[in-house]
Amino acid sequence: MIGLIESYVKNITENDVFNFARKENINLNKQELSFVYAFIKNNYEELLEKGKDFDINKYQNRFTQENFNKIKQLIIKYSELL
């Protein structure tokens, strides 16, 4: 499963991130979108490794409060699937 995720991340685009966020009822602004995209591309291994124990709180200032709360819940939701 990890290999599949790695392959997906290598090919992911900002548009993919934007569409996924919209599907999850998260309306990212341009700065948030750029941050999330770059963060996923550069840190997906840490996210996979730590799962729900990943400390998203240190990035809270990068998001509106509403988006931060939704993203935090998504991390918990999807980490339970790994």
Question: What does this protein look like?
Answer:
There is one protein chain. With about 80 residues, this protein is mainly alpha-helical. The protein has one domain (about 1-80). Helices cover about 70% and strands about 0% of the residues. The protein contains 4 helices and no strands. The protein has helices at about 1-10, 15-25, 30-50, 65-80. Helix 1 (about 1-10) runs antiparallel to helix 3. The longest helix is centred in the middle third of the chain and has 21 residues, at about 30-50. The model has no long low-confidence stretch (mean pLDDT about 90).
Topology:
Blueprint (H helix, E strand, L loop, with lengths): L1 H10 L2 H10 L6 H21 L14 H15 L3
Helix pairs in contact: 1-3
| SSE order | HHHH
Biggest sheet descriptor: none
Number of strands: 0
Determine the N-to-C terminus distance: 8 Å
Determine the fraction of residues in helical runs and give it as a percent range: 55-70%
Strand content: under 5%
Global geometry? globular
Return the structural class.
mainly alpha
- By DSSP (H or I, 4+ residues per run), the number of helices equals 4
Indicate how many domains the architecture comprises: 1
Radius of gyration: 12 Å
Mean pLDDT: 91
Contiguous low-pLDDT stretches (5 residues minimum) are none
